[in-house]
């Protein structure tokens, strides 16, 4: 009797791959969920004249994770746009992005491809103040704004410079598999007067209130969205990864179910054949050495009819034709478990 059939290589690869992807999705989901819950639990602080006294009474004179909503104001000098007159800000970013078509040798299609070939970001010290700064001199200095996980910059200028094409260049592009489309020039700024939601560590340092990157495990935000919208987007991002994790987990469970069901069916069939062989052995033991030729030629399955079928290609003669027809598909020899390709009738003279 052969050993229990093992899962195929393809089934094992499918199960291992889906399990690994599920684990990755679950890890990302847990991280996104923790980030959303941490952001949701941030303390909202109002920009009022009592803020300094409020921080003075706290341990360490800081709020570990605080939310500040205010208007951007340059602390000293400001940055000017290179292309737009009278456009000033505190963070300036200039990007050059190359657009080209790349030939995919697998799909035999041209695909869009983008690559940043140059990017320069400048910043100057700036504060967050109330929308009506004339009624209060309170300001919160933003520290290390470029380290923010989310830094919303407004696009103030954008221009696409198409690539110059010639016959020689076109021929070279076909040979190399790359066809340039052009260069996109983009200028982004955090403009003075923009309303920003800052989330980070709020600390009082030498009578100056600072918003700086929080401790490890917390995200630093400088977003144009209000705090409620920022929380909703973070929770939506976590739910998206949760759905992906559930779908991939369901596929893993389904694959495991089919593999186990196949193994169970194989085990039950093996037990049935063992039981039949044991019954045949017991019957022969009861009959003894003087059993008749008719008994020796009886079907090993039903033990009633005479053996009347030759199984090919293995050549075993062990059952009657009625029991052969009752074998489950795909039909296999009860003796050696090889697949039966055809049956030849056996005539006893």
UniProtKB/TrEMBL annotation:
<keyword id="KW-0472">Membrane</keyword>
<dbReference type="InterPro" id="IPR013083">
    <property type="entry name" value="Znf_RING/FYVE/PHD"/>
</dbReference>
<dbReference type="InterPro" id="IPR022170">
    <property type="entry name" value="MUL1-like"/>
</dbReference>
<dbReference type="GO" id="GO:0022603">
    <property type="term" value="P:regulation of anatomical structure morphogenesis"/>
</dbReference>
<feature type="domain" description="RING-type">
    <location>
        <begin position="299"/>
        <end position="337"/>
    </location>
</feature>
<dbReference type="GO" id="GO:0016567">
    <property type="term" value="P:protein ubiquitination"/>
</dbReference>
<keyword id="KW-1000">Mitochondrion outer membrane</keyword>
<keyword id="KW-0496">Mitochondrion</keyword>
<keyword id="KW-0808">Transferase</keyword>
<protein>
    <recommendedName>
        <fullName>RING-type E3 ubiquitin transferase</fullName>
        <ecNumber>2.3.2.27</ecNumber>
    </recommendedName>
</protein>
<dbReference type="GO" id="GO:0031647">
    <property type="term" value="P:regulation of protein stability"/>
</dbReference>
<dbReference type="Pfam" id="PF12483">
    <property type="entry name" value="GIDE"/>
</dbReference>
<dbReference type="GO" id="GO:0009893">
    <property type="term" value="P:positive regulation of metabolic process"/>
</dbReference>
<dbReference type="Pfam" id="PF13920">
    <property type="entry name" value="zf-C3HC4_3"/>
</dbReference>
<feature type="transmembrane region" description="Helical">
    <location>
        <begin position="12"/>
        <end position="29"/>
    </location>
</feature>
<dbReference type="GO" id="GO:0051094">
    <property type="term" value="P:positive regulation of developmental process"/>
</dbReference>
<dbReference type="GO" id="GO:0008270">
    <property type="term" value="F:zinc ion binding"/>
</dbReference>
<keyword id="KW-0833">Ubl conjugation pathway</keyword>
<dbReference type="InterPro" id="IPR051652">
    <property type="entry name" value="MDM2_MDM4_MUL1"/>
</dbReference>
<keyword id="KW-0863">Zinc-finger</keyword>
<keyword id="KW-0175">Coiled coil</keyword>
<dbReference type="GO" id="GO:0061630">
    <property type="term" value="F:ubiquitin protein ligase activity"/>
</dbReference>
<dbReference type="InterPro" id="IPR001841">
    <property type="entry name" value="Znf_RING"/>
</dbReference>
<comment type="pathway">
    <text>Protein modification; protein ubiquitination.</text>
</comment>
<keyword id="KW-0862">Zinc</keyword>
<dbReference type="GO" id="GO:0005741">
    <property type="term" value="C:mitochondrial outer membrane"/>
</dbReference>
<keyword id="KW-0479">Metal-binding</keyword>
<keyword id="KW-0812">Transmembrane</keyword>
<feature type="transmembrane region" description="Helical">
    <location>
        <begin position="241"/>
        <end position="260"/>
    </location>
</feature>
<feature type="coiled-coil region">
    <location>
        <begin position="266"/>
        <end position="293"/>
    </location>
</feature>
<keyword id="KW-1133">Transmembrane helix</keyword>
